[in-house]
Amino acid sequence: MNNMKRTILLFYLICLSNVLFAQTINKSAEMQILKVNEQVSTHIAVGEPIDYVDISTNKLVGDIPIKNIMRIKPVEEMAETFEHGEVLAMVTIVTERYKIQFNCVYTKNRDEASSNVDIKTEDMASYVNVNVNMPEIEMRRLAWSIWNSGHRYFDVSRELYKLRITLNNIYTYKGLFFIDVSIKNKTNIEYDVEQIRFKIEDKKQTKATNFQQLEIEPILSINEGETFVKEYRNIYVFEKFTFPDEKIFTVEVSEKQISGRTVILRIDYADILNADAFHRSVLFR
């Protein structure tokens, strides 16, 4: 009798386990399904810049109009061949730290198609991206912490055309440089920024033919504004770089006008080296 009860109990537990497993699979599959229609553009928004996407077939097309949004749509010319409920493609989205996959299912009813999908990070699988030293969201958080801190440099500046460009801070963290620069316009003439260039060049310029320079690009800046009247400030993030003492790091700001005002800030290597002493005091506020 006891053996019979144990057998019945074991059978019941197996059945219950199978039901729960099936419910989990169905729920997971349901979360991964995205309904699409050729008359609707489906926008998938994630919380980080998108590094990589894959659409497994040619039945869907997609692009990234904004760095954290992917837009997909069934190919209109092929729509007549699609069956209602057909899986058109699997879409994979990989950000700096996360990835997610969808089965895109065709619906003939355009009202059923998803137009806006917001993905929360907790719904995405963690992913170690070896090409990303620091996620952009963390770079921005650290840059804004520097923005709200006091100035560490007071004597690295240059004034020309009543424009004063000043180095406020240099911080280093996890193989990155955060360089904080501001400009004060002492005139009432609005300044339209044409470009800001960063170079490592010879400290002493003897002959133009022998003059050497290397232009480097920031991987992030937190102020996208291009026009200012009185004050401009930005924090630029660079991959860590070094250069010999006979070189100098320059920040060149030029105006859009034909007779535009150009001002250049020259930063010695000693100032770059001093960044090492400052990274702990601000970054974890």
By DSSP (H or I, 4+ residues per run), the number of helices equals 4
From the helix content, strand content and strand pairing, which structural class follows? alpha+beta
User: What is the share of helical residues?
Assistant: 10-25%
Radius of gyration: 28 Å
SS strand fraction: 35-45%
CATH topology term of the largest domain: Immunoglobulin-like
Count all strands and give the number: 19
Task: Measure the end-to-end span.
Answer: 68 Å
Shape: elongated
What would CATH call the architecture of the largest domain? Answer: Sandwich
The profile of the biggest β sheet is: 5 strands, mixed
What is the class of the largest domain in the CATH system?
Mainly Beta
Low-confidence stretches: 16-31
Mean pLDDT: 78
What features would you highlight for this structure?
five-stranded antiparallel beta sheet; single chain; alpha+beta; Immunoglobulin-like; 285 residues; 18% helix; 4 helices
Q: What would a concise description of this structure say?
A:
This protein is an alpha+beta fold. It has 4 helices and 19 strands. Helices cover 18% and strands 42% of the residues.
Explain the overall architecture.
18% of the residues lie in helices and 42% in strands. The chain is α+β, with helices and mostly antiparallel strands and 285 residues long. It has two domains: 100 residues, Immunoglobulin-like; 146 residues, Immunoglobulin-like. The strands form four sheets. Strands 1, 3, 6, 7 and 9 form a five-stranded mixed β-sheet that branches. It has a five-stranded antiparallel β-sheet with strand order 10-11-12-17-15, with helices on one face. Strands 13, 14, 16, 18 and 19 form a five-stranded antiparallel β-sheet that branches. The radius of gyration is 28 Å and the shape is elongated.
